[in-house]
Amino acid sequence: MDNKSLLKIWNLNKCGGVMGIFNCQGTGSWPGLEILRSSTGALTRLSKEESLDITLKVLHCDVFTESPIKVNNQIIQFAPIGLTNMYNSGGAVEAVESSSSSGSKIHIRGRGGGDFGAYSNLKPKSCSINSEDLKFQFREKDNIFGIAIPAKSSSWDMTICY
């Protein structure tokens, strides 16, 4: 950060233009993060030093959801993406906590139904939503955890056990 540069986004109209200016100084950074690209559903893991090359066709756009990878109980690396079928996937995640009283657990409080996704370096043993055990998917090639949250769920509590 140079403490003086601003992020500028601009576009021209037929008879004028529009510009958005953002002061992003001091926004911080994460040691590692998981990024979901909405247009393709691709998940990418980046370290603090890495960047992501993005190309868009003329008049196209894309939305990216990012979630920090946090280490829980010195073993589990976890990053909740949220409801992957939504543009603002992370907006469904309201809180994330971990506990190790009887094994390692991740607790997530959220809202809305749909396809929930997260990065996890380890395959969970079980997952429950509102105290009901549900089946989940885990893709070992890229460590993606997924579970369908019932559409009728306006709010939910998820517990992932390792």
In short:
This protein has 162 residues and is mainly beta. The protein is built from no helices and 15 strands. The strands form four sheets. The protein has a five-stranded antiparallel β-sheet with strand order 6-7-10-14-13, with no helix packed on it. A five-stranded antiparallel β-sheet has the order 8-9-15-11-12, with no helix packed on it.
Short descriptors:
162 residues; mainly beta; five-stranded antiparallel β-sheet; 15 strands; 51% strand
Shape: globular
Biggest β-sheet: count, sense, barrel? 5 strands, antiparallel
Mean pLDDT: 89
Q: Taking Cα atoms only, what radius of gyration do you get, to the nearest Å?
A: 18 Å
Strand coverage percent: over 45%
Overall helicity: under 10%
Provide the succession of SSEs.
EEEEEEEEEEEEEEE
As laid out across the biggest beta sheet, the strand order is 6-7-10-14-13
Distance between the ends: 39 Å
Give me the secondary-structure category: mainly beta
Number of strands: 15
Number of helices: 0
Which stretches are poorly predicted, pLDDT < 50 over at least 5 residues?
Answer: none
What does this structure look like?
The structure is a single chain. By secondary structure, the chain is an all-beta fold. Helices cover 0% and strands 51% of the residues. It contains no helices and 15 strands. The chain has strands at 7-12, 17-22, 32-37, 42-47, 64-68, 70-72, 76-83, 93-99, 105-111, 114-120, 126-129, 132-133, 137-139, 144-149, 155-161. The strands form four sheets. Strands 6-7-10-14-13 form a five-stranded antiparallel beta sheet, with no helix packed on it. β11 and β12 (132-133) form a beta hairpin. The N and C termini lie far apart (39 Å). The relative contact order is 0.15. The model has no long low-confidence stretch (mean pLDDT 89).
